[in-house]
Automatic annotation (TrEMBL), chain A:
A Pfam family per the record: CheR
Domain CheR-type methyltransferase: 8-276
SUPFAM superfamilies: Chemotaxis receptor methyltransferase CheR, N-terminal domain, S-adenosyl-L-methionine-dependent methyltransferases
Name by which UniProt lists this protein: Chemotaxis protein methyltransferase CheR
Keywords: Methyltransferase, Transferase
Source organism of the structure: Mucilaginibacter gossypiicola
UniProtKB/TrEMBL annotation, chain B:
CDD domains the UniProt entry points to: CheB (cd16433)
Pfam family, one: CheB_methylest
Reaction it catalyzes: [protein]-L-glutamate 5-O-methyl ester + H2O = L-glutamyl-[protein] + methanol + H(+)
Single Gene Ontology MF annotation: protein-glutamate methylesterase activity
The protein's Enzyme Commission number: 3.1.1.61
InterPro entries in the record: CheB_C (IPR035909), Sig_transdc_resp-reg_Me-estase (IPR000673)
Protein name: protein-glutamate methylesterase
Gene Ontology CC entries for this record: cytoplasm
Domain CheB-type methylesterase: 10-195
Domain of life, per lineage: Bacteria
GO biological processes: chemotaxis
Alphabetized PROSITE patterns for the sequence: CHEB (PS50122)
Active site (catalytic residues): S22, H49, D142
């Protein structure tokens, strides 16, 4: 049932944002409000909380916060979401990456790791597996634990089979997993060149230099001013001519950034860093 | 018989028009997008259930045949008059206080993404009685709860006459909830839209 919205008021949403910032140091003020409100309402319904219950546990129960963080951020992800994006990376970005001795890729907001491993499969199939390294980051430590394991339910993996077919990659998605009963475990060779770590796009800074950054379907949760702050961070984190991949509905609109990022693929929102 | 006076007035007052459609709604939606005039003086939002990896098909067909300017919603698009927006596949579409769209990839609602409920509820929150919403043919209950919310906030709410719909479940669910101000056949809906 989703007749949830409206149980809490806008003022109450702001009150919760304040509490979370003051007590836990996470700043959600730049999040889009309609989505945030839906998530908050969902948390209240799941826990059978009234607004005051939620306020109370957020202030007094520090264990609850991890759970809150997991629920407030959207961790729905797929392997090879938007297959046409992976096709575009294959033809438009990988030739560039292959000119490097070694490439570093950052998947920002990687959740449970599906996108990191999709990219690892793509690179491996292109023969770049051994000379590339993917950093997956998220604000949420619990999802990163799942990402590190690289073990998914077989049912989920099979549901990505159609995506995989549309990417044009050979074989089938299960070729990249070891399957044991209902669990599908990503091949070790694909896991080797990945590292998962906590990074908060809102409060943390540059931590490495990359040839490619992928941050897809994260900006949709942020207000424009916050998106632009993070675009700055990405710009600083890319090597000259490095690639930035946003979600297919997340276009760079601001004029100041249009001169910093050249459009490589308009439909898939793949950009290249230009200027200095 | 044409639409009654009260219905006509409310339709003309509406600034935001939402259509929710699922299985069996394609034909009527196609006729709607073809017939709506270029300068309707309203913002039109279409939420249509469909498979995720075949986007561009419906969007392209609609864009090529609509008289009104049509675009697939992108993150933070501003709601504009005389524009027809279509909610993208595999995202939920929300409306923000500032009059712009935001997208969301969270769990499907009623097995659907886009979910009609999500957008209807969000429109009710922000625009309330400035909305008119029409829930068309469909095989599940998505949209019923959202239409009720719109109804409660004073929007004009219409459900397609179930006997007239290819799949009656969706409009019937809304009617059972008491969400529909009016129950209209396809022909009556067209008469209203073109009045």
């Amino acid at each position: 049932m989703d007749t949830a919205q409206g149980i809490i008021s806008n003022a109450q949403v702001h009150e919760l944002i304040d509490i979370v910032r003051k007590v836990h140091g996470f700043d959600f003020s730049g999040y889009t409000k309609a989505s945030l409100k839906r998530r908050l309402t969902r948390i209240m319904l799941l826990n059978k909380f009234e607004f005051y219950d939620l306020k109370h546990v957020l202030i007094n129960n520090s264990d609850f916060f991890q759970n809150f963080l997991e629920e407030i951020t959207v961790n729905v992800t797929e392997m090879f979401r938007d297959p046409s994006f992976y096709r575009a990376v294959n033809t438009q970005v990988i030739p560039y990456l292959s000119t490097y001795q070694h490439t570093k890729i950052w998947s920002a907001g990687c959740s449970t790791g599906e996108e990191v491993y999709s990219m690892a499969i793509l690179l491996n199939e292109a023969g770049l597996g051994k000379k590339s390294f993917i950093y997956g980051t998220d604000i949420n430590t619990e999802v990163l634990k799942e990402a590190r394991k690289g073990i998914y339910s077989l049912r989920n993996i099979k549901s990505y089979a159609e995506n995989y077919q549309y990417t044009g990659l050979k074989g089938s998605i299960t070729d990249h997993f070891t399957i044991l009963y209902d669990a599908a475990s990503i091949h070790n060779e694909l896991k080797q060149n990945t590292l998962f770590s906590v990074h908060n796009l809102i409060s943390d800074t540059v931590f490495n230099e990359f040839q490619m950054i992928s941050c897809r379907n994260v900006f949709i949760y942020f207000e424009t001013f916050l998106q632009e702050r993070i675009l700055d961070l990405f710009y600083e984190s890319l090597c000259p001519l490095g690639y930035l991949c946003l979600g297919s509905k997340e276009t760079i609109r601001s004029d100041s950034f249009k001169s910093k990022f050249k459009v490589i693929n308009q439909k898939e929102n793949i950009y290249q860093k230009v200027g200095t | 018989m044409g639409p009654d006076k009260k219905l006509l007035e409310r339709w003309h007052d509406a600034q935001i028009v939402l259509f929710g459609g699922s299985a069996g709604s394609f034909k009527i939606l196609f006729r709607i997008i073809k017939d709506l005039p270029e300068k309707l003086g309203k913002t039109v939002i279409l939420i249509i259930h469909r498979k995720k990896n075949f986007f561009s098909e419906i969007e392209k067909l609609f864009a090529e045949n609509s008289r009104m300017y049509m675009r697939e919603i992108e993150d933070k698009d501003i709601l504009k008059t005389n524009t027809m927006y279509i909610a993208p596949a595999n995202y939920h579409t929300l409306i923000e206080e500032g009059g712009y769209f935001s997208l969301d990839v969270s769990e499907p609602v009623w097995y659907s993404k886009p979910s009609i409920d999500v957008t209807f509820e969000s429109a009710a929150e922000v625009y309330g009685n400035k909305c008119a919403a029409i829930l068309l043919s469909g095989a599940n209950q998505d949209g019923a709860g959202g239409l009720l919310k719109l109804h409660e906030t004073g929007a004009l709410t219409i459900a397609q006459e179930p006997a007239d719909a290819e799949m009656p479940e969706m409009p019937r669910s809304a009617i059972n909830l008491g969400a529909a101000d009016y129950i209209l056949t396809q022909d009556e809906i067209f008469k209203l839209l073109l009045s």
